[in-house]
Amino acid sequence: MTAATNLQVVLARRPVGVPVVEDFGLRESAIPEAGAGEAVVRTAFVSVDPYMRGRLWEQPHRGDPVAIGQVMIGEGVGEVVASGDPAMAVGETVRGYFGWQQYATAATGELERIDRSAAPLSTALGVLGMPGLTAYYGLLEVGQPRAGETVVVTGAAGAVGSAVGQIARIKGCRVVGICGTEAKCRHLVDDLGFDAAVNYRTDSLDDDLAAACPDGIDVIFENVGGEILEAMLRQINLHARIALCGAIAQYHTAEPPLVPPHSRTLHRRRARMQGFLVNDFAEQDEEAMAALTEWVTSGQIVYRESIVDGLENAAAAFVGLFSGANTGKQLVRVRAESD
Description:
Order of helices and strands: EEEEEEEHEHEHEHEHEHEHEHE
Largest sheet: 7 strands, mixed
Strand content: 25-35%
Distance between the termini: 11 Å
């Protein structure tokens, strides 16, 4: 090991509304040791995801809340540098929930070995990790698109949304992305192959959606919530399917404001709205990851990553998620892969 201490990002106070950098702090601790059945992992990348906001409330919203002074939660990838399990060798590359820190101890049974020959290591936290699987299951298992249908994706320039749109294109659908800047709209169409993109920050969202979806909307993959969802529902077709993945626009209040009831619209259109979590389909992970890997390595899925260097910048990267600062998967590079 090359570091004398273990740098960690901890929760300093509970955010009020949208998180700010000052809600987090840095701490140095001793590098952990591996007990029996454990491994110490030197982290290369840690993930920054919107769902983490729900773990910062004092009362649990999704999983146990992060305690004040606790290392910030998060998935990571890295190299085993010490092992107390003969089945886990030093030097192996693994993925696990290490939190935002340079070194982490984990039970070896909770670690997943990563094939580094398939794609860059960073993709194990993005398109070939939880976000990719979320896109795969939410679209194909919940949305169930058919060739020729129109699929609309919110948060379309993010890690999940960008994969959703491209998988829908692979399946022969017309794909419309909703995002927050004209630059991201161009990225969706020019780089990712979306058929159209809509900037939700304009004053003509309904008209822009109608122009982009002349035949109505058959499948919605929803990451944002609120008024954008309402606008999409006004244009759904008979038997539409709505996959509820997230609601980033409503993560910053303990009790999100109620939106107008959907029941009449859903009933009239005989539509189905279903929430899901990626773990709902875990038994299919091997099949799904094989498909995602094939699409990525063949170039059918293009991915983009927003990477910041240094754990000291992890809080700023997290805060930036809620203003749309990232395009694609947001990551923090804890160390260079060659270090």
